[in-house]
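Two quick folds needed for the group meeting slides. Do the first one here.
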Amino acid sequence: MNPSNKKEDVVARSGAKRRDEAISSQWRGLLRATALAMTRLLISGCNLPAASTPTADLFATLQASTPSNFTPPPATESIATPQFNFATPTFTTLPQNAIPSPSPADQLTGKIVFTCQVDKVQSSDQICIINADGSGFRQLTSDNARHFYPSLSPDGQSMLYSAFREKNVYEIYELSLTTGNANRLTDRLGVSNAPEVSPNGESIVFMRGNPNTQQNQIWIMDRNGKNSANIPQALGWDPTWSPDGKTILFASDRDGGAQLFTISLKGSAIKRITNLPSIRGRSDWSPDGTFIVTYSGEPWNREVYIMSADGSNVRQLTPTGGNSQGPSISPDGQWVVFTAYFDHYGDDHGCEIYLIRTNGTDLRRLTNNSYCDYQPRWGP
């Protein structure tokens, strides 16, 4: 299926009104069965509608769509079903334009890359970057094609992203932040997206969607794009590395409803770690490996959740009512960046990038544009 959420899951009206962390008008056929359940957000997040805007679910990657006769392999570890321990923020109503911008006192460091819908048309989404303190904004891509799912390399010198190439084909590129030159790493594998460089800088994990089988799988390749192969048993989307580089966290509907799983690079020790309703996709792992963030909920009612790395101690992190999605954790582990609609709820072009501390305080608005900004990913 498709975890796109935009404007998540992973990029927006179709699937789940998602405007995001999972594609071309032709890709719609592939997603039709899924799109009926995910409505406009997913389609906009994963399709390439000629003139539609990603909706509240454009973030998620592509939610996996598994053939009806597919039987998931058994998990090698027992499934964890942690008890909810939601500590919902007390502030549930936020006046428009009342959320402050970052201040020097916040001591925010690093850069954030994100998908910017500068033309208000999903088929020409671009990639932008901004310093975490709100300075240094610039647009990194400009060619006439859809670009999404950006992430920064561990050294902060380059940025990975996925871009439309041709029918049922999205390629992964690496762009130098110094020269602006982009290098294509994949070659017609299918719908390749959500790339992320390993902590040691040697490998890239990504999702590969096969339009013929309608399966999404987690793949790994060398940093230069060579030796690509799937991780056995890892059917799903929106992968992210553990800090030690030994485990992959990803979303999957292998057990029915979509949840988060962890798996080793060899495809062993697969384990379900969440029991949340309506997991969308894009998640992130804290630098010290102790906690993760993800997002969950129905269209226009998404929220970001934070929990221990084993899926326990779950609590809602974001204030209720912002349709919050696609979280990523700061390099120091103190903040979470995400997309939401606090200031323009219900507006297709109203999603902006926000920051919040991991204790649920000090909500900040990072972007303020007339178009949708989504799928943020924090790096050094």
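Then this one, please, same format:
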Amino acid sequence: MAIFITFMLACNLATASTPTPDLLATLSAATPSLADSTSQPTLSVIPASEPTGKIVFVCQMFKAQASNQICIINADGSGFRRLTADTTRQHYYPSMSPDGNSVVYAAFREPNIYEIYEMDIASGIITQLTDRLGNLNGPEISPDGQLIAFKLSTAAIHQIWLMNRDGTNPQPIPNAFGWDPTWSPDGSYILFASNMQGAVQLYRIRLDGSELQKISDLPAIRGRSDWSANGQFIVTYSGQPWKRDVYVMNTDGSHPRMLTPNGGNSQGPSISPDSQWVAFTSYFDNYGDDHGCEIYIMRVDGADLRRLTNNDYCDYQPRWGP
């Protein structure tokens, strides 16, 4: 079904794209370049590149999880706007289509039922894609735009599912018990988090359920990760509550390295389409404040930390698109 909504401009948002100069200098100095490491992922950095595209994220503007909204901002910190309008239910786990024209996300429908929706950014038309499959989240469209991967939870079981872009033919990926799926750039693998072998780690699997492989070995991995479009590296986050950090590693899980500076409780990373930047949630400027998380970006070599949002509510779950 399709529902037309009018885009709503949210409350006034400061569009400062960097933290204070002192903070930026301190954090940049505390984060050595990946070029200084002898066990680094293979990265191709274009020093002159500036961030482009858009970042979609959850904006908790009403300071209540039950009324989370979906917002979008340009990668340079301009052009903020709120996309969803229904204040009576939770919206979360947004991601952008490969062409940048739409956003998919999950939203509450009734107890134990979350549906997946796709919104056309230009028109505001929303299409409901699922119908009472269960508790769904983490939708992400395949690189060719044909499929959507997502997580379905029933009782204590979490499994990665696939469906056609229009919501038809939903079915589980055999052996893919976990959450937070993301696609390899060629669309042949799904990367996801799972505790199927004990502690939570990252796994990858083919769409038919074959070639399941655990690829990470980090303590306290949480979930949402991303795979660079150039196929060179992946990012994830790990750590105990309020002590989380973003890590970068090769796509086989080798040579993991902490990317974000200490002290920010950084999490939920997403890589820019040109593979030069990483967006993530952190509390660098409001550490310890439950409503203090903001969206930050930094280069994949650990330099040039910038804050994109500046609100009195939490902004999180960023996903970068063109």
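Slide caption for protein two: Residues 2-31+50-321 form a domain with the Neuraminidase fold (CATH 2.120.10.30).
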